[in-house]
Design brief:
- By secondary structure, this protein is of the alpha/beta class.
- The protein folds into three domains: 107 residues, Tetrapyrrole methylase, N-terminal domain (Cobalt-precorrin-4 Transmethylase, domain 1, 3-Layer(aba) Sandwich), CATH 3.40.1010.10; 106 residues, Tetrapyrrole methylase, C-terminal domain (Methyltransferase, Cobalt-precorrin-4 Transmethylase, Domain 2); 43 residues.
- Helix content is 44%, strand content 17%.
- The strands form two sheets. Strands 3-2-4-1-5 form a five-stranded parallel β-sheet, sandwiched between helices. The protein has a five-stranded mixed β-sheet with strand order 6-7-10-8-9.
- The longest helix has 13 residues.
- It binds S-adenosylmethionine.
- The site of S-adenosylmethionine has 24 residues, from strand 7, strand 8 and strand 10.
Length: 275
């Protein structure tokens, strides 16, 4: 069985009892860096049996070997340097292949940087989009931001301190001056969440210098775009495929907030009826 085991992102107290049990009893623990995990296990007082590297540079070669051991019935645990494996960390292809081969798999959940950042941001939590790391280069970063600018969701990105100011500048340029939170050093001694309009955050960090430590950026959703004539027409045509003209007018009116009379005329035009 493959165990996807979360480990702390800073605070050692965040290791779970189940993670301890699985890591100590697994035949093999695959990790990004055997020295980093070895050190962490030492601090946690864990006696893991055997550590083996599994990272982006050796994954193609290492994966078939891990799969072979799993097929023999061994218990393999996968951890990353910190937090939850597969979340902006290696492991997705291993999980994909296990699923394809019918190898049993389970997650041992625990710490990650994503959820505490969303919780502590003070921004709406009903829907959020996690974009992993934004691209390094500004042009690609702006394209990535354009792709999500209309999402009706809080946006979350991992970022490194030396790219923070440039990323915030691109966020302001593409998404506008939304409220955002920079969550830093989560679960650690110097945990900090700074929340302000993006332009203020840019000003603050330009003055104080790029912060140290690990960072998550959380951004408020934009105001809902106004309904254009084309968008309303498109919605009407789609609704008419499965609804009567009367129901379409009522539903589109409710969705857009536009006057019912105005909608009804468009519905009849689209349905090919005389008003
Ligand atoms: N797998 C990890 C998880 O579950 O969150 C994330 C790994 S990713 C390679 C590392 C990034 O996660 C960092 O660059 C930072 O953006 C974020 N991160 C990790 N630990 C953090 C912490 N203690 N505080 C804030 N962000 C953190």
């Amino acid at each position: 069985m493959l165990y996807l085991v979360s480990v702390p992102i800073g605070n050692l107290g965040d290791i779970t009892a189940r993670a301890r049990e699985v890591l100590e009893s697994a035949d093999l623990v695959a990790c990004e860096d055997t020295r980093t995990s070895g050190r962490l296990f030492g601090l946690l007082g864990l006696r893991a049996r055997k550590l083996t590297p599994y990272h982006e540079h050796n994954a193609e070669k290492a994966r078939p070997k891990l799969i072979a051991r799993l097929m023999r019935g061994e218990a393999v645990a996968l951890v990353s340097d910190a937090g939850t494996p597969l979340i902006s960390d290696p492991g997705y292809k291993l999980a994909r292949d296990c699923r394809a081969q019918g190898i049993p798999m389970t997650a041992v959940p625990g710490a990650n940087a994503l959820l505490p950042a969303v919780q502590l941001s003070g921004l709406p939590t009903d829907a959020f989009y996690f974009g992993g790391f934004l691209p390094d280069k500004s042009a690609a970063r702006r394209r990535a931001l354009q792709a999500v600018q209309s999402l009706p969701a809080t946006l979350v990105f991992y970022e490194s301190p030396n790219r923070l100011i440039a990323a915030l500048e691109d966020i302001a340029a593409v998404l506008g001056d939304r409220t955002a939170a920079v969550a830093r050093e989560l679960t650690k001694k110097f945990e900090e969440v700074r929340r302000a309009p993006v332009s203020e955050l840019v000003g603050y960090y330009k003055e104080s210098g790029a912060p140290k430590g690990e960072i998550v950026i959380v951004i408020d959703r934009g105001a809902q775009a106004a309904w254009t004539e084309d968008a309303v027409g498109d919605l009407i045509r789609r609704m008419l495929r499965t609804h009567s003209a009367r129901d379409t007018a009522a539903l589109v009116g409710a969705a857009t907030g536009l006057p019912r009379k105005h909608i009804y005329k468009q519905v009849l035009d689209a349905a090919g009826h005389e008003p």
